[in-house]
């Protein structure tokens, strides 16, 4: 998938989230029916989510974004636009919380 450009400063509303989902679906070259079948929701529900007449649950929103292969930072923008808390946390590679990961990598033997 290509890079998507979201504008998290947009007003927070389910319509904004639905518009973003529609744009992502179209960029992926999928019809509403294609995406609804991939995710296991009805085409009608997906249509209502895209138009803002219905709000996707966090689980459904996650399934839709996963099916569309949306990068995690962009998933957060859609979750926020839908009125939910951001779902994914990003850490810098040199963050103290990742020190244990760096230590483990240093102790892992190099391939032979």
Task: Give a verbal description of the structure.
The chain has six helices and no strands. Helices cover 54% and strands 0% of the residues. It has 112 residues and is mainly α. It has helices spanning 14-27, 32-39, 43-51, 58-67, 72-81, 99-107. It is elongated. It has a single domain (14-107), classed as Orthogonal Bundle (434 Repressor (Amino-terminal Domain)), CATH 1.10.260.40. It starts with 13 loop residues before the first helix and ends in a 5-residue tail after the last helix.
By CATH reckoning, the class would read: Mainly Alpha
What percentage of the residues does DSSP assign to strands (E)? under 5%
Oligomer: single chain
Number of helices: 6
Please outline the major beta sheet: none
Helix-strand category: mainly alpha
Tally of strands:
0
Known CATH architecture: Orthogonal Bundle
Average pLDDT score: 83
Give a concise summary.
The chain has 112 residues and is mainly α. The chain has a single domain (14-107), classed as Orthogonal Bundle (434 Repressor (Amino-terminal Domain)).
Key terms:
112 residues; 434 Repressor (Amino-terminal Domain); 54% helix
Element layout with pairings:
Blueprint: H1 14-27, H2 32-39, H3 43-51, H4 58-67, H5 72-81, H6 99-107
Helix pairs in contact: 1-3, 1-5, 2-3, 2-4
């Amino acid at each position: 998938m290509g890079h998507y450009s979201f504008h998290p400063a947009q007003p927070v509303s389910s319509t904004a989230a639905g518009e973003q989902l529609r744009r992502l679906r179209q960029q992926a070259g999928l019809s509403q029916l294609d995406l609804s079948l991939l995710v296991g929701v009805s085409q009608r529900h997906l249509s209502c989510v895209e138009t803002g007449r219905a709000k996707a649950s966090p689980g459904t929103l996650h399934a839709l974004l996963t099916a569309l292969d949306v990068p995690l930072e962009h998933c957060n923008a859609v979750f926020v636009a839908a009125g939910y808390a951001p779902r994914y946390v990003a850490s810098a590679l040199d963050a103290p919380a990742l020190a244990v990961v760096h230590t483990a990598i240093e102790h892992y033997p190099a391939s032979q």
